[in-house]
Design goal:
5 strands; YggU-like protein; YggU-like_sf; 43% helix; alpha+beta; five-stranded mixed beta sheet; 176 residues
């Protein structure tokens, strides 16, 4: 328990610092335009759980399986000096046709065979953003209007994006 206390106190301090900087930013923003809502993001980040097999022959490198709990990847690179992590980013970039700059591996996953890979700036349909903006301006899709609302539509669109990623990964599975 004593090892956890410094972590908790540093998290509290971080939370206080971010809250005070956020309140200072919100005060300065509220003076300039109090009625203008913040723009909605049209991109999302997706976290993929991957199981990595390293040091395989080059013809077998790539996506090996897509399951509900993880994506199987094989890379020819050795797990040394970050070579395998670079290869993982290349395999996912090629399979999903997204830039390598939009793929990151958090520090906690760098030395593990079970990795969390973050796909950043994944676009969601602009129609979703339009629907959420329209609902926010009072267009009648509130709780009493009988419609599912913008959150349900956004959830459906995000599910469609995730399904598209899954389909691309399945199409990229390396045949042995």
């Amino acid at each position: 328990m004593s090892a956890i206390r410094p972590i908790l106190s540093s998290l509290r301090n971080l939370s206080k610092a971010s809250h005070s900087s956020h309140s200072a930013q919100s005060k300065s923003k509220s003076k300039s335009s109090p009625s203008k809502p913040a723009p909605l993001p049209s991109t999302i980040s997706i976290h993929l759980h991957c199981r990595i097999k390293t040091n395989v022959p080059a013809p077998y490198a790539g996506v090996t399986s897509v399951a509900s709990d993880a994506i199987g990847l094989s890379v020819a690179a050795q797990p040394r000096d970050g070579q395998a992590n670079i290869a993982v980013r290349e395999v996912i970039s090629e399979a999903l046709a997204i830039p390598k700059s939009n793929i990151s591996i958090p520090q906690s996953s760098l030395k593990s065979r079970d990795k969390t890979v973050v796909l950043e700036d994944i676009s969601i349909p602009s129609s979703t953003v339009s629907r959420v903006c329209a609902a926010g301006s009072g267009s009648g899709s509130g709780p009493g209007s009988g419609s599912e609302g913008p959150d349900k539509d956004k959830d459906k669109d995000v599910e469609n994006v995730i399904q598209d990623i899954r389909t691309r990964l399945v199409a990229a599975i390396v045949s042995k």
